[in-house]
Amino acid sequence: MASKGSKKKESGGHGSDSPKGTPASSQLGASNEKCRFPIWPEWNDADINAEKWDPGKPGKEKAGKGQISQFFDDPEGKVELPASLKVHSWKRPQEFLTKQVPVVVQNETSFDLVSANEHIFCSELMRWIVSEIYAVWRIYNEKSLTSEVPTLFWKPWEHIYALCKATKEHMPLYNKFGKYVLKLYWMGCWRKIIVDDTMPFNEEENLLLPATTCQNELWPMLLSKALIKVANTSIPETGKRELEEFTVLHTLTGWIPEVIPLQSEYLGKVWDFLKEIVPEFKLPDEKTPESDTTQPDTKPEEPKDSELKNEVSSVKKQSVSSDKVEATDNIGKESSVPTQPEMVVYAGCVPLHVFEEDFFSLKQMSDSSEKMRQYGLSHIHSHPVLITRTRSCPLEAPPQEPPVPGWKIFRQKKEVVLTSEPKEPEVKAPEEHVEIASLFLNYKLNFIRIPTDTHFPRSTITKGFHFVSRLTSVTESDENESDNNVDMNQNAEDNSQENQQNAEIPSKEELHKTVSFAAKQVSETADTDMKNQTGDESKEETESEKTSVSRETWISFEDFCVCFQNLYVFHNPDTYAYNYQKTDFKFTNDPVIYYLLVDSLMPTEIIVSFSALVHWDDTGGTKQECSSISKGVLTVEHFSWKSVTPGELVLKMHTSATKATVLNLPTGRHTLLFTVSSPIGHHINLCTTVPCVFGEEDAVMPALEKESSRFTEQATAILKAVGNVINNYSSEDELSKALKELELTLCPPGIHGTEMAEELYKVFNIAFWYLINYVIDKKTSYRYKLAFRSFTLDFEDFKISGDDPVFSETSEQNLSSWQDRTPTSEEQAAALKIQAIWRGSYVRTVLKSRRPGTRENASVEETLKTLWSLIELNFEQCAVMLLREMFKRNFKSIEKFPCYEDEWCKMSFADYDVTCADHPPHVWFLVFREIFIVPEDMLIVTKVYTTIPSCRLRVVDNDTLEEMTHVFFEVVPQVYPKNEKGYTFMAEAHTDDQPVTAGKWKLRLMSSHSPLPFLSREAVKNVYSTRLFKGHYIPNKENIMFRYLVKVKAPHTVTVHVQTSKSDVFIKLQVLDNEEEIISVAGKGHAVIPVFNFLSNESPLSSHSKISQIVQSSTKKESETGHSKKKSRDSISKDRKTSSKPELIQEGSPMSIDESLEMIDESLENFQNSVGSPQQSHKYMIQAVVLYESWPIPEDQSLSLQELKEEENDEIKGQEFANIPRSTRKHRASEKIEREKSQRGSIESQQSFLSKPHWTLRVVSEQKEVDVLEMKKDTQKADEIRAMKQAWESAEPGRAAKAFQERMRFINKCAVRDSEESRAGAETTSVTPSSGEKGMKAPQAAIDSRLQRQKKKWELVDLSPYLRKTRSESVLRNESIIQEQQIRKEEKVNHFRELQKLVLEQREKEENDRALLKQNILEMYENLQASLDETRVRVHSIREAYRNNLLEAELRKQEELAAQEAALKAEKKKKSTDKAKPGKGLGKKK
User: Is 742 helix (H, G, I), strand (E, B) or coil?
Assistant: First the structure.
């Protein structure tokens, strides 16, 4: 089932990038030609209508027979079942249904997938398939089934096609050939999956696929086979589960599965989420009888069912049609999309194992298993449970308290509870319950029985169980007591009662009613149907099957989070306004990159669905091999082209099937980078309620040029506030309010009333004046200037121009007379006075215009309203321009605006494309070189798009010739300051072992705003000419590889590249001008000067040549005419006055040397004056130097390089002899023949060139400027030596021959030192040529000597002249001399030891002195510390004594005050008693 192809599908909104009329299967056809099992094609109704249902060609031929089989066999082979189901044989329906006729669908209104399938429920995959089929049936059809006329909106057999057309409500028929087509959702679209009708059986002849109670129905088996096929494409993370992230509901409906792990720190948010999306149970307002208590239980589901019913038509279209709902252009279909997205939630538990290595997982397993058993669920039979309702109140309303009489309301007695300890207030736990629906409620649940022979008392056992766990307390019974006839309903009631006790619900009757809710609901529905339609047996069967489906129970949310580990939230993508999809099948693990642009004024939620295809099993790999395959990875991070560093990671997903999550983004504009890595293919689906841009970079970049929503909103608010001020300009009260509102709108939060606000107002004034000039679109008149001053009350001058009616042309003419004269002090004082008076008058006029009711105010109001009418014509553009001009000023408070954060995602860009030609291997070439002018300082980001490997971009500042900073061979985004000559963007590339075919290369320049850098010429040109130079590297003292002289006739731009045969050589490439370094670049193995502009060095040289021609002509003419050199100076000067230019000198006129020299001097002066001093003669040199002696030559190559060096020297010598006059032309012809032979030999030895150390120099210039540049090897030193020898030869003919003779004589003398003198003299005389033959024999002698040096082995060189002599004469070394040398040596050693001893003593003395000094310093500091402590103690004692005295004085004072107060009190008491005594006496007398 794997294929090696590539298919890429992009879709966004309602449209698709693929051309219309081209089915997806044809797109996959080209990529799957060589594949054994192609990827399942996308669904197409036309293909189904044209499908052939007989075996035909796809069928396999039976072994040993030539005829085609009569049954269809799946070309992908047998379906691989889970390991828990052991397949023994495969049978077709004709084989295991012998007494019945097979049909695809028997009962069209209901089905039962539980009763006949208990033997396969040991498989986790089968339990999930059955459970989720029932879940989809319930979601779509539950409300319709309870109605009188049931209407089914979803039927599982409608996914099957056989002998039928692809219509809306088709019915698949039984195909005797066994071919069936199924429509399932996979990898982002509905796909066509073909299966046969072979069914697996085990050894007991039990069918290993789900089946209904109708034995001859085939649809559950066919549907399950296709689902298992899809499930097998995902790889479980471990071998413990049969499915990891595969969900049947997603495959059947296309709804996006979001997995939410139930973690303790997020349970509060999960509960709020469930209350929001799941129907909530609520108590009725009025009290109902007990028999009707179950009625409210079904009512809360009605909103959800009605909502589904309203959308069921669109849902069914989505399940039948193959088109995907995508909404970038949501104008026409927004009304059909629901206001709220539709979601379905079910929970699942992870089946943990005893051999789990993590101890925390073992504890989780035990807690989960215990809780699940309490609610009638089994941890062993893990399956999904559908969440139907939530509840935050008791099932029954609490009894109402009797009304309190009015007289009891007053002075109510507080209840006082006397306790020995303080009582804390009781905190009642909130009511949080979840209703779950499950097929496997109380399925094979074995209850624990306690043996009767235990010695523990009954009470102890009960207490122990209550104390240890929350399991149900069990009554002791006899071991022989039969427990086989346990009623399941009673068990369910007991379990549910225990559940409600755990949920802290006190009433047992409520618990009983809660548990039996589903049964009562079913029975009541059945009774009603029996009354309405008696005798309808099919409906009774339907109700009986419903009873097995509708098993529901309430569970507390706390226990729910313990039992289950994950929530599966399925989002219906049709209910989201905007849907974006990307699919790619590439069969490589290279990452694929997408970009997402979100711009919203509200926080955004995006459902990100990621499907990865990591396994396409056509090799029959084992499970272990499959488990080693890596999962698909999706990473989402914040991104900006302006930054090199990666952004903050937002999301990371790993999956081998389909997984989704919610991406929450705050308000504003965000650019996200999606990086996908999947071995075979992937699919991404984004669902959101706000418009986005999702796709490749070219699709996202144009949207980044627009202003963000927050920026536009802020700009619109500011301009609206300006309009409010203009509209209320004549109302005093409203104007002050409008100005206050404008200030608040302008100031970001937190800076109103600060200095930053004052700066912001000034920036606004400048931007507002810029807007006025833009709107008026002509020279601003005086009235607009006055209106602007009145509006802003800003009298600062920031280049406000305007026509002042006071200032006329006549006044301008009068003022022109003052330009050439200096005013007196009185005139200056008068002018200042006039200016002050005018300014005061102007300010008063502006202030009057601000006061409503004045004539000036009416005039300014009329001008402002005229301006506002022009602004309203293009309101949004003007608002954006106003705020953008404010942002360009870069003031401090700009960062306080909320929309400033969006500036990081604003981009403008421009593309420049060129085409590259084919290039052979191991070649360096230039791709692009252009000059861009930067209009202002701006941040520029460069990006290159090319198929050429090893391509690199360089940017050079033409003013400084410095290269811009780059990281990892990429130019860093940075601010490019404005310069005069612009920036050169140069792209280079080099080929490896493989050639490079022709392709396109694109440069993208990006910046925060426009205008972007522009080309220095009209169009891009990339036709270049490369000059190639090669040579061997011969080591020398200066480590120079080569030197080339450059001559240019006009200013010329080139790129210089040098490369060495050894890749680790450090080299330095230089451009010299008059031996002064202009630019240099260092590199390893190669070096590049991206761009250098050679100035013309032709004109100065041509002028000098003209002057030299003048000198030569003058000297020649003087020698011919024979004029006297004693001509008077006056005549010379006179002639010079008449003809001052050298070009005007007549050829026939006689001229002396002095005259010619004076004329030359004058012409040089005129030339310098005409050309100017800056234009000097340039002598450019391109030079390469080896650094750090990093190019050592091996010994096996040093000899060959030495020979090359000698050949070069011989060539120079041959050139020297070539300049000597020859007697005949015959020798020249022979030399020409020899030169041709040497060239022929060099061509033959071209292969040996690469084996020796060599270098390659490339100089690239534009094709049209090839003739301007001239390069040749630098032979300046050789030319100077040659010219010197030529001068010697011309002065003394035969000097070269004599020197050659002396040199050869010396060489021969050294070579044959032991030969006889006579033979040496004979050889010398034989070598000595005659005067007539010296020109002919000299080169021959040189050649012979070189041949002798190559063939003859040199003797050892006499080194005696280089030895140092200690004695005048050589003496034999004897014992006395040896003894004398030994004595001198010992004396030197002893002397050295004495010196060493003195040095060591001196060091020891210095060390002791340092130790003593250290000890003295420590003692001094210790004494200082002791004295300081003593002083501190003394000061503290004095302070303590003073403090004690103060305290004692204060104490005495307080005691005195207390005594005085006591005395006063006693005195007052005595007086009061004295006054009371006379009264008492009077009473007694009476």
Answer: helix
Mean pLDDT, rounded, for 857-885: 91
Which neighbouring-strand residues pair with 1006?
Answer: 909, 941
Nearest-angstrom CA–CA distance, 1324 and 1304 = 9
CB 941 within 8 A of CB 641: yes
CB neighbours (10 Å) of residue 234? Answer: 22
Q: Specify the pairing of strand 385-391 against strand 280-281.
A: parallel
Cα–Cα distance measured from residue 1247 to residue 1266, given in angstroms and rounded to the nearest whole number: 29
Whether 754 shows a pLDDT value over 90: the answer reads: no
Q: What is the DSSP string of 1151-1197?
A: --HHHHHHHHHHHHHHHHHHH-TT-----EEEEEEE-TT--PPPHHH
More confident residue, 713 or 326: 713
CA-CA distance, 1167 to 1101, in Å (whole number)? 12
Instruction: Tell me the pLDDT tens digit for each residue of 200-249.
Output: 999 999 999 999 998 889 999 999 999 999 998 887 655 567 777 889 99
Are 498 and 375 within 8 A, CB to CB? no
| Tokens at 992, concatenated | 């490896």
In the structure encoding, which two tokens stand for residue 355, read together? 């051999």
- The whole-number pLDDT of residue 576 equals 92
Lowest-pLDDT choice from 110-119, 833-842, 1316-1325, 1403-1412: 1316-1325
Number of H helices, E strands in the chain: 37, 43
Distance CA 1347, CA 966 (A): 55
Mark out the alpha helices in 1095-1143 (DSSP H runs).
1099-1121, 1129-1138
pLDDT higher than threshold 60 for residue 1223 = no
Among left, alpha and beta (phi > 0; psi -120 to 50; other), residue 185 is beta
- Dihedral sign computed on CA atoms, order 920, 923, 924, 925: negative
- Bridge partners of 758, per DSSP, are none
In this structure, what token pair is assigned to residue 1191? 């190019």
Task: Report H helices in 873-961.
Answer: 875-888
Average pLDDT over residues 1141-1157: 38
**Residues 428-449: tens digit of each pLDDT:** 778 889 999 988 888 876 655 4
3-state secondary structure of 1249: helix
- Collapsing DSSP to helix, strand or coil, 223 comes out as helix
Per the CB < 8 A criterion, the answer to whether 605 and 663 are in contact is yes
The alpha carbon torsion through 691, 695, 696, 701 (nearest 10 deg) reads 0
Q: Beta strand 1076-1084 with 1066-1073: parallel, antiparallel or unpaired?
A: antiparallel
CB 15 within 8 A of CB 329: yes
Distance CA(630)–CA(615), nearest Å, equals 9
Highest mean pLDDT among 248-252, 330-334, 640-644, 1007-1011: 248-252
Q: Which residues contact 293 (CB under 8 A, 6 or more apart)?
A: 395, 396, 513
Is 433 within 8 Å of 394 (Cβ atoms)? no
Integer angstrom CA distances of residue 1024 from 1001, 1257, 1258, 1260, 1262? 15, 16, 12, 7, 4
C-alpha distances (whole Å) from 1060 to each of 1030, 1084, 1253, 1287 are: 10, 9, 8, 40
Neighbours of 1416 (CB within 10 A): 10
Averaged pLDDT of the chain? 75
pTM, rounded to two decimals? 0.70
Task: State the amino acid at position 1155 in one-letter form.
Answer: E
Residue 907 confidence (pLDDT) above 50 = yes
pLDDT (0 to 100) of residue 780: 58
CB contact set of 522 (below 8 Å; sequence gap of 6+): 543, 546, 547, 550
* Long-range Cβ pairs for the range 1080-1089 (8 Å, 24+): 1082/1187, 1085/1059, 1085/1060, 1086/924, 1086/1057, 1086/1058, 1086/1059, 1086/1060, 1087/1057, 1087/1058, 1087/1184, 1088/954, 1088/988, 1088/1055, 1088/1056, 1088/1057, 1089/1055, 1089/1056, 1089/1057
3-class SS of residue 258 = strand
